[in-house]
């Protein structure tokens, strides 16, 4: 015990980072184990869903979620092991030296730190893309293919991955270079300027994402005139939601995932619907194929997917997130001068700003990030229940029941969740919790109504009302 206390401060920092990282991983693995036990032991449809979920669909969803959970375990173990080896073997300072060698070939010495930082960033993202590619391929062409969700060819998949990498670099490198420059010239109050810059970049990306970035990958078309568009616009007006446009995205060319999101801020909000979400628009239905779509890993499997992708962050409150960003940059300003932080990760002779950002935001702040993530998850669940209550108050409880149950079936969502796993991970309550909260006599009515689920058409417009009500202007995470 005395030997540990006698270690240099930089060694204590390094080992504390490793211990905390593995502690979080083991906690996550334990929670996943609890949920896998649910998948393996729950062999029958819950009594409350006995008349609205058939045994075949229940079994398919159980096996699908079990496969995803097993895959997540092995991919998570690989990721944690890889990260640990990178730290133990000095991978970060090594890659920094390689980046310096690359920039030196263009006649740029150590004084050109920003260029070396960009080279480092490109090499790091390239390494991450290559090491993650086999896992992504397996997930898409083995798991998703096995359960009937994948619509991509290998060629399309690789082309799409390459395009994503290029677009990411086109955004990441200029933004990073400007951020580093602001930190360099900002003086004692650089953290204020850096915070304002990142806030501005977030707002710009929210504004241009669906108009200029997303169309690089998928085809976007305005929702045609008709009953669906009229109902969406009518509902938006009834709750004073500043809707300006409604788009349909051709998501069916890559998978049968169903999804939707809205973006924008202030008085300029737009809604994007996946074609796989709507029975009248999905090419999969026109071809006579089943309408399927798995839930995202970060979502509860029973979420009605007509919701924005950013629910991991809950119902984003711009004041809360802006304050969090400011706090992080302020603490970064306090810690960036501590040489022992750089020595702990193998930087003995230099203190690059980018490396400081990585060390402090990714490693030193990791306990804070875990707590914040959990708090936002709890907040998100609270808003989901409030949104459901709002829907019930609008007299739309029956339609919400319809959307939740039908989309849960289409997405092969598993309706039973371990309470601890659900509490920690699910930013949206599981299906049974939401049905119980909506509860009352309507549940009995719907269990009879759903004796013929295949012939029922969801009123798709309703599945958006939750977000129109509860979400304020906030960034979409993509």
TrEMBL record:
Broad class of the protein's primary localization: endoplasmic reticulum
Enzyme class: hydrolase
Family classification: Belongs to the peptidase M48A family.
Gene Ontology MF terms in the entry: metal ion binding; metalloendopeptidase activity
GO terms for biological process, alphabetical: CAAX-box protein processing
Enzyme Commission number(s) of this protein: 3.4.24.84
Membrane topology per record: Multi-pass membrane protein
Domain Peptidase M48, chain residue ranges per copy: 222-281, 322-439
Keywords, alphabetical: Endoplasmic reticulum, Hydrolase, Membrane, Metal-binding, Metalloprotease, Protease, Transmembrane, Transmembrane helix, Zinc
CC cofactor: Zn(2+)
Known catalytic reactions: Hydrolyzes the peptide bond -P2-(S-farnesyl or geranylgeranyl)C-P1'-P2'-P3'-COOH where P1' and P2' are amino acids with aliphatic side chains and P3' is any C-terminal residue
Record protein name field: CAAX prenyl protease
The protein's role, per its UniProt record: Proteolytically removes the C-terminal three residues of farnesylated proteins.
Record-linked PANTHER family: CAAX PRENYL PROTEASE 1
Pfam families on file: Peptidase_M48, Peptidase_M48_N
Claim: DNA repair is one of the keywords in the record: no
Region span, Disordered: 284-312
Gene3D superfamilies: Metalloproteases ('zincins'), catalytic domain
């Amino acid at each position: 015990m005395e030997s540990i206390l006698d270690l240099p401060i930089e060694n204590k920092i390094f080992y504390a980072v490793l211990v905390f990282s593995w502690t979080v991983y083991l906690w996550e693995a334990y929670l996943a184990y609890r949920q896998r036990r649910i998948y393996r032991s729950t062999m029958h449809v819950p009594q409350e869903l006995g008349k609205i979920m058939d045994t075949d669909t229940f079994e398919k969803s159980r096996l699908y979620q079990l496969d995803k959970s097993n895959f997540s375990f092995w991919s998570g173990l690989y990721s944690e092991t890889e990260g640990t080896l990178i730290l133990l073997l000095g991978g970060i300072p090594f890659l920094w030296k390689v980046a310096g060698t690359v920039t030196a070939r263009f006649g740029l010495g150590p004084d050109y730190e920003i260029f070396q930082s960009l080279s480092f960033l490109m090499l790091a993202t390239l390494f991450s893309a290559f090491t993650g590619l086999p896992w992504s391929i397996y997930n898409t062409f083995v798991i998703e293919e096995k359960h009937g969700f994948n619509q991509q060819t290998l060629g399309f998949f690789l082309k799409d991955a390459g395009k994503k990498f290029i677009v990411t670099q086109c955004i990441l490198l200029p933004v990073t270079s400007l951020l580093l420059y602001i930190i360099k010239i900002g003086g004692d109050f650089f953290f204020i300027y850096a915070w304002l810059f990142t806030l501005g970049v977030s707002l710009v990306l929210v504004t241009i994402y669906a108009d200029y970035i997303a169309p690089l990958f998928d085809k976007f078309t305005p929702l045609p005139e008709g009953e669906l568009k009229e109902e969406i616009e009518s509902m938006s007006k009834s709750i004073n939601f500043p809707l300006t446009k409604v788009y349909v995205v051709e998501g069916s060319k890559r998978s049968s995932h169903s999804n939707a999101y809205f973006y924008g801020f202030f008085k300029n909000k737009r809604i994007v619907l996946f074609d796989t979400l709507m029975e009248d628009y999905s090419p999969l239905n026109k071809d006579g194929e089943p309408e399927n779509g798995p839930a995202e890993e970060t979502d509860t499997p029973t979420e009605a997917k007509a919701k924005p992708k950013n629910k991991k962050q809950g119902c984003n409150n711009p004041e809360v997130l802006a304050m969090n960003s400011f706090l992080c940059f302020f603490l970064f300003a306090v810690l960036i001068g501590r040489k022992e932080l750089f020595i702990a990760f193998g930087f003995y002779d230099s203190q690059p700003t980018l490396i400081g950002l990585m060390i402090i935001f990714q490693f030193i702040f990791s306990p804070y990030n875990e707590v914040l993530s959990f708090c936002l998850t709890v907040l998100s669940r609270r808003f989901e229940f409030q949104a459901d209550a709002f829907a019930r108050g609008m007299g739309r409880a029956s339609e919400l029941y319809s959307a939740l149950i039908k989309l849960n079936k289409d997405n092969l969502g598993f309706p039973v969740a371990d309470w601890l796993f659900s509490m920690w991970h699910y930013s949206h309550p599981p299906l049974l919790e939401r049905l119980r909260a909506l509860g009352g006599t309507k549940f009995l009515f719907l269990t009879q109504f759903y004796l013929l689920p295949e012939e029922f058409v969801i009123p798709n417009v309703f599945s958006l009302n939750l977000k129109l009500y509860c979400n304020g202007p906030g960034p979409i995470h993509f």
